[in-house]
Design brief:
alpha/beta; Rossmann fold; five-stranded parallel sheet; 5 strands
Length: 115
């Protein structure tokens, strides 16, 4: 896990992307699990306010987003979360590869690794 970086795992539905990332993270460090389908998570991660975005992320230093493509302006908000001086790193996965790539492409230049 590299601070300030986001790893996106893209692939078809129901192939174990979330399970794989959870197993990896459980062995590595405490993490925060966020679902893009949850309305409270959508509001929080769609806020575009650095303090609001970092209020829970900084306490764990690592987060896992499932279905981030349904979160509003996810690319821009991840950029704000991962902006220095954060020690946080993030992992996201989704089956809507084109949608997620389009939303994170420009905002996460230099901050994203695609797998």
């Amino acid at each position: 896990m590299v601070p300030g970086k986001v790893v996106l795992l893209l692939g078809p539905r129901q192939v174990g992307k979330t399970t794989l990332l959870r197993i990896f993270l459980e062995e590595s460090a405490p993490y925060l699990f966020l679902s893009g389908e949850d309305r409270a998570t959508q509001a929080w991660l769609g806020s575009q306010d650095i303090e609001t975005l970092r209020q829970n992320i900084d306490s764990t230093n690592c987060s896992l987003w499932t279905k981030p493509n349904v979160m509003p302006k996810i690319g821009l908000n991840l950029k704000l979360i991962m902006r220095p001086p954060t020690a946080a790193s993030g992992f996201g996965n989704g089956s809507s590869s084109f949608d997620l790539s389009n939303q994170t492409g420009e905002p996460l230049v230099g901050r994203k690794w695609g797998v």
